[in-house]
């Protein structure tokens, strides 16, 4: 009778939930496990950057500028004689913060708007779909660049800029899901039993719409990381002296002839991070929704 | 069909106007004016001279008037003078840089479509064999890794390790190779993925079986029967593809020192060159809107099942 009889009624037979099935399938996917491990490693580097970095990221040494990798500086030094390895370690912190933080903003804006518009329908829904269409016509990166140039560089502003543009996709996904689910019989059943609007939406409809939202978030993370790197590359992202990989590539590529190490190491970091998240995201998608493969 | 085309064409001007309005508002809400006396590197003119300059450029008028003036001039292709390159009009700069970007973008698109189709077809025919793995890995790298990072790797590999191509510039066709490849890899990966998926589906379809059953060889089966149908879903990708190549060119042009619109856009962004920014955004916007329309119409021509 109780529609949300959750784990309390655990039987001796191991019940197979969506998430447990998904986890099992995910663990069998070797590429996804490899990607996931790198992601965990990057998170650890980001959290413990202060302990791991051999030097502070602002420590300059004007006697040793643009040095190639050596024993003192494993990845060399930059234009101001700062240790490249330390700057890369702190750069991981920026990337992870943006990747995860921006997704929180995106979900907080996108899911409620999408759910309400799908559930209520009518004029609000029409307005949202039109708005989303216009947003899709505008190249996303161009819009983020415009917003950033208005707000000015900085981490918080990156969250805002990505949040402002990124919620559209997730709202669209949520709306489509809610539209399909609200017609299902179990929703009618719950409504017949007297469930109110809020309860219907949060306890019955949204939990069933969760899978595509989770998948969208897993792919949204690398996209946010890419956006930050791209913004910092052209100089409207993270404010110096805080290091960001994109900014390091952007500055380093000007000296690629003479000092290859300046842009190559951060480039490798970006490539590895993006690939890991992609493998992990593909794995999550295949594990949660084998139909989509 | 005629109705659909007409209504889409009629939607173009309001879309562009909305784009212009958004850009205009964003640019004017931006702190820092080209005449801001406390800005970094501001001009050291007296307040009176500043006022005269503001008047000369029309910056002293109310916002809605500025916008109206801008639109009425923009319709005739007049975007005013660049604030940064003071002796030149925006139009002159665009006329000079747009063809460069157009050439780079077109080459990248052609490479992406041809390469992506080839990779996708090979992957589908040799499913789960070496060709498949090679094309899927290439597609994954192209899609996942940002193009400015790919550009760095390309320079290291093909300018330093194997000194085949120059690191930048735009003087001879030899300079064009690396930027084109860097810009093409991402769309190529997406096209390859979609072609592979849709080819796999089509290869197993009944009509392909029929074609084989009547004794047709492998080549006509793939190219006459399968590819034609597999190509249809790929066409829908072309719209977003134009956008990807357009925004991608900002980075690729900056890295390879290509004198195109994308590089000017990045430069004008930091220089708060309003007329330049508006013109570039609108040019991209108009170009993309027209291309999207063309793609949608093409889709209807290719697939007679679609009715508008």
Q: Can you describe this structure?
A:
The complex is a heterodimer of chains A (293) and B (308). Chain A is mainly alpha-helical. Helices cover 70% and strands 0% of the residues of chain A. Chain A contains 12 helices and no strands. Chain A has helices spanning 18-28, 30-47, 49-52, 84-120, 122-137, 140-151, 155-181, 185-192, 197-208, 210-234, 245-252, 261-288. In chain A, helix 2 (30-47) packs across helix 4 (84-120), helix 6 packs across helix 7 (155-181) and helix 11 runs antiparallel to helix 12 (261-288). Residues 1-10 of chain A have low confidence and may be disordered. With 308 residues, chain B is an all-alpha fold. Chain B is built from 12 helices and no strands. In chain B, helix 7 (173-203) crosses helix 9, helix 7 (173-203) packs antiparallel against helix 10 (238-255) and helix 11 packs antiparallel against helix 12. Chains A and B meet through helix 6, helix 10, helix 11 and helix 12 of A and helix 1, helix 5, helix 6, helix 10 and helix 11 of B.
Number of helices of chain B: 12
Order of helices and strands of chain B: HHHHHHHHHHHH
- Please state the CA-atom Rg of chain A, rounded to the nearest Å: 23 Å
Helix count of chain A, per DSSP?
12
The strand count of chain A comes to 0
Segments of chain B where pLDDT lies below 50 for 5+ residues? none
Order of helices and strands of chain A: HHHHHHHHHHHH
Largest sheet of chain B: none
Helix-strand makeup class of chain A: mainly alpha
Give the overall form of chain A: elongated
Distance between the termini of chain A: 36 Å
Low-confidence stretches of chain A: 1-10
Report the largest inter-chain contact.
A-B, 37 and 42 residues
Output the radius of gyration of chain B. 24 Å
Q: Which range best describes the helical content of chain A: under 10%, 10-25%, 25-40%, 40-55%, 55-70% or over 70%?
A: over 70%
Count of extended strands of chain B: 0
The quaternary structure here is heterodimer
């Amino acid at each position: 009778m109780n529609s949300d009889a959750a784990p309390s009624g655990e039987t001796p037979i191991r019940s197979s939930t969506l998430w447990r099935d998904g986890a099992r399938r995910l663990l069998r996917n070797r590429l996804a496990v490899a990607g996931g491990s790198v992601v965990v490693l990057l998170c650890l580097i980001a959290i413990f950057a202060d302990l791991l970095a051999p030097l502070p990221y602002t420590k300059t040494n004007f006697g040793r500028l643009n040095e190639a990798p050596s024993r003192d500086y494993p990845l060399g030094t930059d234009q101001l004689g700062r240790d490249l390895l330390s700057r890369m370690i702190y750069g991981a912190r920026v990337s992870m913060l943006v990747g995860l933080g921006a997704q929180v903003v995106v979900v907080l804006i996108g899911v409620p708007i999408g759910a309400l518009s799908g559930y209520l329908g009518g004029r609000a829904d029409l307005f949202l779909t039109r708005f989303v269409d216009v947003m899709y016509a505008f190249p996303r990166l161009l819009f983020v660049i415009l917003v950033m140039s208005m707000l000015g560089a900085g981490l918080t502003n990156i969250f805002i800029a990505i949040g402002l543009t990124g919620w559209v996709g997730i709202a669209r996904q949520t709306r489509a899901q809610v539209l399909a689910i609200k017609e299902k019989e179990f929703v009618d059943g719950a409504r017949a039993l007297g469930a109110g609007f809020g309860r219907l939406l949060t306890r019955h409809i949204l939990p069933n719409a969760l899978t595509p939202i989770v998948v969208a978030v897993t792919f949204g993370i690398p996209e946010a990381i890419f956006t930050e790197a791209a913004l910092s590359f052209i100089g409207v992202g993270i404010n110096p002296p805080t290091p960001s990989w994109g900014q390091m590539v952007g500055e380093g590529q000007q000296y690629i002839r003479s000092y290859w190490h300046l842009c190559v190491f951060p480039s490798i970091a970006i490539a590895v991070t993006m690939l890991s998240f992609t493998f992990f995201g593909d794995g999550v998608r295949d594990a949660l929704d084998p139909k989509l493969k | 069909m005629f109705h659909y085309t007409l209504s889409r064409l009629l939607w173009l001007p309001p879309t562009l106007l909305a784009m212009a309005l958004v850009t205009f508002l964003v640019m004017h809400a931006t702190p820092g004016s080209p005449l801001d006396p406390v800005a970094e590197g501001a001009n050291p003119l007296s307040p009176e001279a500043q006022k005269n300059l503001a008047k000369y450029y029309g910056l002293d008028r109310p916002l809605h008037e500025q916008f109206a003036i801008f639109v009425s001039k923009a319709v005739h292709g007049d975007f005013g003078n660049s604030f940064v390159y003071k002796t030149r009009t925006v139009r002159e700069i665009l006329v000079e840089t747009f063809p460069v970007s157009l050439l780079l973008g077109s080459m990248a698109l052609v490479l992406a479509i041809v390469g992506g189709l080839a990779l996708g077809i090979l992957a589908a025919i040799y499913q789960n064999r070496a060709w498949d793995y090679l094309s899927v890995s290439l597609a994954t790298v192209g899609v996942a890794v940002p193009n400015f990072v790919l550009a760095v790797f390309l320079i290291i590999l093909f300018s330093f390790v194997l000194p085949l191509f120059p690191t930048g510039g735009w003087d001879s066709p030899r300079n064009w190779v690396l930027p084109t490849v860097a810009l093409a890899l991402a769309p190529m990966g997406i096209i390859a993925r979609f072609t592979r998926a849709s080819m796999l589906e089509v290869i197993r379809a009944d009509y392909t079986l029929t074609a084989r059953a009547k004794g047709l060889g492998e080549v006509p089966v793939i190219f006459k029967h399968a590819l034609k149908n597999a190509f249809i879903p790929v066409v829908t990708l072309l719209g977003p593809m134009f956008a990807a190549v357009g925004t991608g060119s900002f980075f690729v042009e900056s890295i390879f020192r290509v004198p195109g619109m994308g590089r000017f856009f990045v430069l004008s962004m930091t220089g708060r060159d309003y007329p330049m920014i508006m013109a570039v955004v609108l040019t991209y916007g108009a170009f993309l809107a027209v291309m999207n329309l063309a793609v949608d119409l093409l889709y209807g021509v290719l697939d007679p099942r679609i009715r508008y």
